[in-house]
Amino acid sequence: MPRYALLPSVLAIFLGTMASPVPAAEAPAGTVTMAPTVIEGKFRPRSSGDTAVVSAFDPAAALYAMTHTVFEGEAWGEIPELGLSVQDMTPFAGKWSGNKQIFWNASVKPVFQWDFAAPKAKSLTFDMTAAPDYGTITIRLFCFRKTPYGTYMLKGTLQRIYDGYATSVRRKTTAITLLGAYNNCYGSDAYRLIFSFTATAPGRRYGGIDRIVVTK
Question: What's the pTM value of the predicted model, to 2 decimals?
Fold first, then answer.
């Protein structure tokens, strides 16, 4: 959904023809939202192969410390080589957190990864954007435990498939639960998120990420 493609949708709002956006759920009580500033480059997303299995984790990797419980996607900032940019969402009146999102032009790069630490995380909720020209995003979470030798071992993996298509621009939510008898992800020392894009129809080559909410 290029920025210029938003103009017809804005016009539709004023004409009253667009369906009402789904209101955003409020963050749980006690959450702490990070300041809306761009995080340091070494902690930002980077290029990734479309890897189904990650068996090793670089112990020298820069892990973004998720000390707050709400991470604003726009804090990743502008990363042209990944097709990521910050987009103003105020024209859509859909209560996007901070009135901004990370807009993903997946035709530039259809997959990227982000490494972070979130002690005692029980679940991750992804507040996303859906639109007529948005596609499907597979969200893979790789969970690692640090060994006494300073290396990381893969404990488990979790996955959600998010359908970004909608007939109007709106917010949608999906979640990954880390608690469970078989996934071995709760209590991990490091996490890797891999976002992989699939164009489900011609012209659907975009995605949008508003925020990630951590439940502890």
Answer: 0.79
pLDDT digits (tens, 9 = 90+) for 107-159: 999 999 998 999 889 999 999 999 999 999 999 999 998 888 877 888 889 99
DSSP state of 16: T
Query: For residue range 103-112, what is the model confidence (pLDDT) as tens digits?
Result: 999 999 999 9
Domain residue limits, the chain: 3-215
Question: Encoding tokens for residue 68?
Answer: 């707050």
Contact between residue 111 and residue 48 where contact means Cβ atoms under 8 Å apart: yes
**Domain 3-215 fold:** Jelly Rolls (2.60.120)
